[in-house]
Design a protein that fits this description.
heterodimer; A: Ubiquitin-like (UB roll); Rossmann fold; 9-stranded mixed beta sheet; 14 strands; B: Dna Ligase, domain 1; Nucleotidyltransferase, domain 5; Cell division protein FtsA (chain B); FtsA/MreB (chain B); cell membrane (chain B); Cell_div_FtsA (chain B)
Chain lengths: 292, 444
Amino acid sequence: MRSLKATRPPQPKRDPAPSRWGYRYQRLMLTPGFRRMLRVGVPVLVIGGLIAGWGAREANRQMVADAYADMKSQIQQRDEFMVKVMAVDGADDTLAADIRTVLPIEFPLSSFDLDLEDMRQTVAALPAVADARLRVRPGGILQVNVTQRVPVAMFRAPTGLKLIDADGVLIQNIIARADRSDLPLITGDGAREALAEGLEIYRVAGPLAPRMRGVVRMGERRWDVILDSGQRVLLPNTDPVPAFERVVAMNQAQDLLERDVAVVDMRHPARPTIRLNEQAVTNLREINAASE
Amino acid sequence: MRDLYQSQRAMRNMRQAAMQRGVVAILDVGSSKIACLVLRFDGPEQFGDSDGVGSMAGQSSFRVIGAATTRSRGVRFGEVDAMAETERAIRTAVQAAQKMANVRVDHVIACLSGGRPRSYGLDGQVDVMGQTVSEGDIGRVLAECEVPDIGEGREVLHAQPINFALDHRSGLADPRGQIGSKLTTDMHLMTVEDSVIENLLYCIKRCDLELAGIASSAYAAGISSLVEDEQELGAACIDMGGGSTGISIFMRKHMIYSDCVRMGGDHVTSDISMGLQVAPAMAERIKTFYGGVLATGMDDREMIEVGADTGDWERDRRTVSRAELIGIMRPRVEEILEEVRVRLDAAGFEHLPSQQIVLTGGGSQIPGLDGLASKILGQQVRLGRPLRVQGLPQAATGSAFSAAVGLSLFAAHPQDEWWDFDIPAEKYPARSFKRAVRWFRENW
């Protein structure tokens, strides 16, 4: 009798052993280097290849560059980064105007487009500026802080009158002496180098000061003091200030310069010499002759 | 012998390379199952060296990270019988173990139980060259051992120096640096049929693996299942496998004798299959579930269903009592144990100071085996399980895995073999140099 149970189809038992190639494949997949290559190398290659293929077209590259530039300008043109005005501190009106002239900026402008260092050098290159600091203040203000040079004397150059500061730097041209009559006048070759000495001569002038028209550097080694009415005081190479003090003292004691004297020569310290005017000499001779 | 020396050296170098790489596979090719363990070597032990002895007796330098077992196919008596089948079975085991370990293994250390192993005791004697014994002296004395005629088609599997004697002092483990004039050594040489090794080698090569070492499974089972004092005082390890039963005798921590009985659990299964007229797979199932060797009154009443799939109702509903099953199994087990007894007697086991016998291997799990074995082999019989090693899954801690575990211990701490010592340098270069000098003298 046949079994009443449903007969199972003769199913061949599956071989549990992996095939030779399956075995090799699994071993390959267990190799660390190969796995790393699959995990990192293949995605990198695929993505890199896609990007390279897409970027091979000029239009695509241009599109990326445009989009980048557009985004960059959008960020840079935001309100927070815009500079709207320039504020100049520490400069008088003329200098402020000069600064605005040398920094021709059309506001509003993005602060990314400002080259502060370059602008600082431009401002500092102005003769009247000792030092300059630039920064963009919150609120869109370009702050220019300037330390101005202080004029201490007026310098007469062959080209005209100029203001000069304590370091001997020429600050600005000036049209007439009368514009800054409070400042002493200094002139001559090498006067700028010996400026301190010239100013010292002015300082010791005392009662003679109103009469002084200026000091002249002679031959880049010594000073002449010019008084009004064309009188000259010739000072020595060394120690000109005590010599001038002596002149001042002599003037106070003997009214030396009230007389008809053309030149007071102090170049020899032991022997001050006076040159009289022609008229005075004639008069003196006449007086001498009359007294004899 | 030189070929063998070179090939074993090459294998040893490959083992070193595998250790350097950190991952090595253990392959136990048995007749009933093929086990593969993947070991990871982490270098020297990091912890527990404060008290001199590391944890697990210093065996924890490796860790099992993958283990797999598969039913063996194409292996009979521990020898490769059908090459392609065996190759597939090895591939299955290796692939599963690799998958578990998640690492690729390239080097494999294998063990085999068949090949009709034969043991030889060798001795050699030399005069020590200098004042003290040097490494070269040991190499020389090992090379001096007179090799017996091991027969055609056989190959040396193990050649371990087991004893050194210096002048009248014997039992030296390491004579290096000692003062003396006459160095004697005893060496244990174990040979197997070379065709068996070659077949196994070919199978492993077909799996894209490199053989980094080969050992006898009886030896490996002894390493893992004998405890240290048993190895020291003398004990025999009976590795009851599927197709063969390996015997290894240990003394002073060296294997001094090894043999093999070509009968095992498969024969018990085939007896059941024939006796009960059932399929081998069913017989195996009945053996593992209900098997035993000592019958009691209870066993007469315990009926076992012996199913079959013939369609004949009468035949498919047969039952046998467990006593009947025991009646089939017991004679075969007795036969195996008696054969083991014969081999042990031939080896002179009764002259050892301690006659501990340890039963291990899958066949040792038959209930009541220790009682039966003590009747045949002597009173000191115990059942052995392999040493516990780090990372070994619970499923692989049974006594069937003692050879695999022993092989991993062998991989971590190999015993000195003859080929580990440098061959004495004067052997042939000196002679050729002398010949050259003589030629010069005669011709000029």
